Amino acid sequence: MVESYDRIHGRLTGIQRIKLFLPPTPVIPKWKAFIRVLNSIPNDQKVEMVMAKMTEHKFINTEHSASIVVDMLELTNRYVTTYPDDSEVVALQRVPDYLKVVENGALLHDVGKLNVPINVLKKGELTNEERMIIQKHPQNAVDIFGKVKYLQTLLVIALSHQEKWDGTGYPNKLKEKEIPLLGRLFAIIDVWDALTTVRAYRVDKPAWTPEDAIAHIKDQSGKYFDPTIVTLFVKMYEEKQLLIQKSLEDDKTGN
């Protein structure tokens, strides 16, 4: 549970800052019936039900979601195995079935967009007012689902993945390690997926090449992203490319 993170340093960590937002937030009236249903079904069905709601509202692409989860799990595992003594890793591993938390948190990262008008989500050029609406989606996730106890731990990614290492992100302008580890990890996965796939808000523009996306992520190291995680992600990408290249060569030689 979230509390498992809180006892490491006895100070206000990023995860505790996020926890402060969970208990007092009101449930938006139109979601009350849905929340009642969620609280009445087994925990292992809650995420599935929310995902169905997101699919119904066309806020989710199954293929992209699977790719995001795979990349997030791999990057998390690399961080955990590379820095096993890191206090955040130790805290994360104390969370029961933490990889399931990572998986489900990744799936629900944009759940707050359920409260954003679809016409705003699909627009390319946004007005200042529309941009402010979009930037409320991390907090929307907590406002809607913060009363569902089982989902509270998963909402860490939803609430923190738009924060930036240099403190210029949203919604709470956290910086560096004030941002929870899972939020810092997922920030790179989210940007990678956004750049390398065609999105509804830029259907007239092609997706970026992986090489261009990697160059952008490197450029944003220490600004948007945690530099340590950038290094791990780039290494993960390069190793995958080598495996793909070897597989293609083996196919040509019949090995």
Can you put this structure into words, describing what you see?
The protein is mainly alpha-helical. It has one domain (2-183): Hypothetical protein af1432 (Orthogonal Bundle), CATH 1.10.3210. It is built from 13 helices and no strands. Helix 4 (62-82) crosses helix 11, helix 4 packs across helix 13 (227-253) and helix 11 runs antiparallel to helix 12. The longest helix is centred in the last third of the chain and has 27 residues, at 227-253. The termini are far apart.
Question: Could you outline the blueprint of secondary structure elements for this entry?
Answer:
Layout: H1 14-20, H2 32-40, H3 43-56, H4 62-82, H5 87-93, H6 98-107, H7 118-121, H8 128-134, H9 137-145, H10 155-160, H11 181-196, H12 210-219, H13 227-253
Helix pairs in contact: 4-6, 4-11, 4-13, 11-12
What is the domain tally? 1
Distance between the termini: 48 Å
Output the structural class: mainly alpha
Largest sheet: none
Give a brief outline of the structure.
The chain is mostly helical.
Feature tags:
Hypothetical protein af1432, mainly alpha, globular, 58% helix, 255 residues, disordered N terminus
